[in-house]
Design goal:
It is built from 10 helices and no strands. By secondary structure, the chain is mainly α. The protein is elongated.
Length: 186
C-alpha cells in the first residue's frame, strides 16, 4: 500500500528537475524511496566496492545533464521506478567499462617495461605477470593476454589460432583482462 506522503512519479521528476531537497533525499537517501533499488543496481553492475554517495551523485548529475534532458524525457509510460532502473543500470555499466579501460596497467606492455624499469625490476615484473597468468583458472584467457599484450601479436593471427572471429577475440580479451586484474589485486 503506497504511503500517503509518497510523491507521484511526475512530482518526483519535477522535484528532481527543480533540485527540491525533499525529493532528492526521497529518491537517493530515503529507505522508502529508491535508495535500496539504486544499491541493488550498484551491486549488480560493480563487482568491486564502490561508494554509494558517489554513485548516487553521479546518477543525479547524469539526470540533470543538458538542463535535465533525461528527466524531461520521462513521460509516465512506465513507472518512474522502472525508468530510473533503466537509466541507472545503463549509466553504471558505462562507467564500469570506462574504469576498466582506464585501469589497464601500461606495465603489461614490453615497451613500457623496457622504458620505465631497471633490468632487475623488469625480471621481477615479468615473473609477477607470469605467476598471475599461470594462476588464472581459464588458461585461454592467459593465452590471449600473453599473445595480444605481452607479445604484441596481430589480433587476426591470435583469433585464427583460437578459431574465433576478431570481434569475439576482443570480447575474450576484455573478460581476460578483468580476470587478470582480479587475480593480480588479491
Amino acid at each position: 500500500m503506497p504511503n500517503i506522503n509518497t510523491p507521484s512519479d511526475h512530482e518526483i521528476r519535477d522535484g528532481l528537475l527543480s533540485q527540491d531537497e525533499k525529493i532528492v533525499n526521497f529518491v537517493f537517501y530515503d529507505e522508502n524511496g529508491y535508495r535500496n533499488l539504486i544499491l541493488y543496481y550498484i551491486r549488480k553492475v560493480y563487482n568491486y566496492e564502490v561508494d554509494y554517495d558517489e554513485c548516487a551523485n553521479m546518477l543525479y548529475l547524469h539526470l540533470l545533464e543538458d538542463d535535465g534532458r533525461r528527466l524531461k524525457q520521462f513521460q509516465g509510460r512506465s513507472s518512474f521506478k522502472t525508468w530510473l532502473c533503466t537509466i541507472a543500470q545503463r549509466l553504471f555499466i558505462k562507467k564500469r567499462k570506462e574504469v576498466i579501460e582506464k585501469s589497464r596497467p601500461e606495465a603489461l606492455t614490453n615497451k613500457t617495461l623496457n622504458l620505465s624499469m631497471t633490468t632487475e625490476n623488469q625480471l621481477s615484473a615479468k615473473i609477477d605477470i607470469e605467476t598471475v597468468l599461470k594462476s588464472m583458472p581459464n588458461q585461454r584467457y592467459a593465452f590471449v593476454i600473453k599473445k595480444l599484450i605481452l607479445e604484441d601479436r596481430e589480433p587476426a593471427e591470435v583469433a585464427q589460432t583460437l578459431g574465433v572471429t576478431v570481434d569475439n577475440l576482443y570480447n575474450i580479451k576484455k573478460r581476460a583482462m578483468k580476470a587478470f586484474f582480479i587475480i593480480a589485486t588479491k
